[in-house]
Design goal:
151 residues, mainly alpha, 63% helix, elongated
Amino acid sequence: MAETTFRIISSGWIRHYKHHSISLKFLKMDYKELLAFKKGFELAMNIFYVSKNFPKEERYSLTDQIRRSSRSVCASIAESYRKRIYPAHFKSKLSDADMENSETSVWLDFAHACEYLSDETYFELTQKSNEVGKLINYMIFNPSKFGVSSK
């Protein structure tokens, strides 16, 4: 197999990497194109809008927590994708994303139990969270499909 040397330009830094027959399509793909990121972003935005109706006394507790954890899912997916040159880091950051998604699910449970979410909204958001979790786990167990080398 031919060894390929290429440059990745990210945030003003140039890095040189050597890989055996890596597909260049992975270098061009942006984390925003990942289905897990798209679905996670959609979930975070839905949570943002529904949490606007939470009571004022929840502003510095439930509202902040559910917004922070749902946004952290996307941030961790983005970080994992930028770390895909290092397989262990890729999986570790995705594990963080999965953890944040689970935390979001717990906050959804509390919001529903406190009657801040209707049954319909709760079910819809919980289903989206479950879907995001499945996509994240697919990435964890299939890293080579996301440009992670198997060094």
